[in-house]
Each structure stands twice: as structure tokens, then as C-alpha cells.
Amino acid sequence: MKLVVFGATGNIGARISREASNRGHEVVGVVRDPEGVAPPDPRVSLRRGDATDARSVAELARGADAVVCAISPRPNARGLGAPSLAAAARALLTGLRDAGKKRLVMVGGAGTLEIAPGQALMDQPGFPAAYQAEAAEGREALKVLRQEGAGLDWTFLSPAAEVAPGDRSGNYRTTDDRFLTDDKGKSFITFEDYAVALVDELEHPKHAGRRFGVAY
Fold first, then answer.
1. Residues 69-126: pLDDT tens digits?
2. Can you tell me the distance from the alpha carbon of 168 to that of 115, in angstroms, rounded to the nearest whole number?
3. According to the model, what pLDDT value does residue 83 have?
4. Which domains does the chain have, with CATH numbers?
5. Contact status, residue 8 vs residue 17, Cβ threshold 8 Å
6. Residue 196, pLDDT above cutoff 70
7. Can you give the pTM of this predicted structure?
8. Distance of CA 57 to the CA centre of its chain
9. What are φ and ψ of residue 106, in 5° steps?
10. Element (H, E) at 29
11. What is the CA radius of gyration of the chain?
12. 41-55: per-residue pLDDT in tens?
């Protein structure tokens, strides 16, 4: 496959790009300032683009088999402002339609996962205030995909509550909208195994038109 990965130099985007390249896929990494960063892997070519701009998405998606959005709703280290995930979701849907493409996988957060039906993790007492804004961005992006994504094969992939650098084991469990923990109550996955799960989904789609989550 030829993959276009928005946010390809971030923590998760870089792992996705490497994982896909290691499996023999062609990866075009998209960032807002390619001259300011190095590609995450020598096999990944970097292009300038903006996931919140439908015309940019369409231009980059035309030659691709699938698009991955791994942008972060935070300002980057080089002074660019925080992008809106909801705006990105709308632009990605529009851009893919304009390009005649259907497959989109968007990196989400854990905050929208449910500890019980209708009870999102982000709405519970004790959810860290520092992550509320990012969780709200993720909620809005997922809402856009669910309400406006008809006819496209979109997937929103939520990680565990804690995601960090670590080993690539190739192991993970999946969930739908339910918050997933291990037998000790811990919700964790490495960036590397999150990338494994995402590329697995690209190669063997099982969650088109819906969200799923991954954790150990």
C-alpha cells in the first residue's frame, strides 16, 4: 500500500511510519514544516501539508491507498499553533471524497472510552485536568466522523490511558467503546504496539465506520 501519514514525525506518527515501512508499504509523511524536521525513517519521504485543509488533504491523498491522521492537538516545538482535531476530521473527510478515496484511520485518545455505557473516562472525577482540552478535541473529532463520515471507511483508534515508548511485542487486546484495563487495573500500551495495531487494521480492516481501542 501507499500510505499518507499526517503528523508523521510525532511520537505515534513516527512509529506508524516505521512500522508500515518495515512491512514493505510506501509511506509519505506529511508535516506542516518539513524543512524543520528529519523523516522518522530513511524510507519515508516528507511532504508539506495540513490535515485541517481539505485541498491539501485531497492533493496528497490522490495517489494513496489510505490516509492516516496522527496529528497532535498541541503546539509543536517549532512554534506552530495547535491544530483542531475536529477541523482535521472535517477536512480529511472532504479531502478524501474530493480525491475519490475512502480509507482513513485517525489516531484518537483514551478520554472518550467508556468505563460504563454512556460514561466516558474523561467525564469522571479525577480525570487529569491537563488532558481535558485534548480529550475534548478527540471527542469532537470522533463526533464529526460518526455524524459526517457516511460512505467512507473511517476508523478512529483510541490507545490505552497511558501510552509511552517501549518495546514492540506485537501483542495487544482490542475493545470497542469500552475502557480496557489489565487484571491489575492498569491501562497501558507502548507507542510501538499501538502502531502495530494501527497497521494491522490498515492491512486487515475490521473496524471500518467505527472506533476501536487497544491496550494490553
1. 999 887 666 666 678 999 999 999 999 999 999 999 999 999 999 999 999 999 999 9
2. 27
3. 86
4. 2-215 (3.40.50.720)
5. yes
6. yes
7. 0.94
8. 15
9. -115, 130
10. strand 26-31
11. 16
12. 999 999 999 999 999
Q: Which is nearest to 47 in space by CA: 86, 74, 8, 10?
A: 8
Beta bridge partners of 26: 2
CB-based contact 25:1 (threshold 8 Å): yes
Backbone angles phi, psi at 157, to 5 degrees: -110, 110
In whole angstroms, what is the distance from residue 15 CA to residue 8 CA? 8
The separation between the first and the last C-alpha atoms of the chain, rounded to the nearest angstrom, is: 27
Q: What is the CB neighbour count within 10 angstroms for residue 169?
A: 12
* Angle CA 40–133–81, to nearest 5: 50
Q: Is 162:187 a contact under the CB 8 Å cutoff?
A: yes
| Bridge pairing between strands 210-215 and 173-175 | antiparallel
Q: Cell digits for 143?
A: 463526533
* Beta carbons of 60 and 25 less than 8 angstroms apart: no
| Angle formed at CA 21 by CA 19 and CA 24, multiple of 5 degrees | 115
Q: Pick the range with the lowest mean pLDDT from 15-24, 126-135, 149-158.
A: 126-135
Q: Read off the pLDDT of residues 128-151 as tens digits, 9 standing for 90 and up.
A: 999 999 999 999 999 999 999 999
d(CA 98, CA 170): 35
Closest CA to 153 of 214, 88, 110, 202: 202
